Amino acid sequence: MNSNKLFDILTFRRKKYAKVRKDVNEIIRTFKVNAKRNRSIADRFADAITSFSGSIPFLVINVVWFTVWIALNTDILPGMEPFDPFPFGLLTMIVSLEAILLSTAVLISQNRETKVNDLRSEIDARIDIVAEEKVTKCLELLTLLLKKNDVDVSNDETLIKMLEPEDKEYLEREIEKQV
What we know:
Order of helices and strands: HHHHHH
Number of strands: 0
Structural class: mainly alpha
Mean pLDDT: 83
Number of helices: 6
Distance between the termini: 47 Å
């Protein structure tokens, strides 16, 4: 490849860089939108419950609910016969059922989020591998340029180590030890 063609490619890449950055942001946004859009009805329901149950209005509703329930069942209001007297067995059962349903909804939402995050991690790992290959190629080219210009880098241990290929199996074993 002649140098003019190489410079044409570099100029073209510089012009496209801004568009590529925009495309990457769009891919990330699209990824999030697609993950949200492709949820099942059960996942949407669980996410709605999780979202609402983690809000201030939900807290206020529960505080008001419990306050009214206790007030109605402790003879605080004259002329009102308690329907669930202390120790509030019916209230305890309702709260227990609420806790079971809420914790299940939260777990469903977390499981879906975990799947999305696992996919994101896989994409990140693949991008990291491609980036590492490109950086290594750049180092090789720089080393060749330095050698061509009679700059001796043969004693640069850091550069030599950086030019060595990564031992992917070693990295996998080390990560597996930590998991």
